[in-house]
Amino acid sequence: MKLKKISTVIYAEIVKQQRHDYHSPYVYFSLLIWPILGFLEIYFTYKPFAVNGYMGISDAKELLAFLGTGSMAYTCFWSMVQNAWTMANQERRGGTLEVVFLTPANRLAIYYGKALGALLQEVWMFTCFCVFILFYTGALDIRNILILPLIFVLLIV
Question: Which pLDDT band, with edges at 50, 70 and 90, does 1 fall under?
Answer without folding.
Answer: low
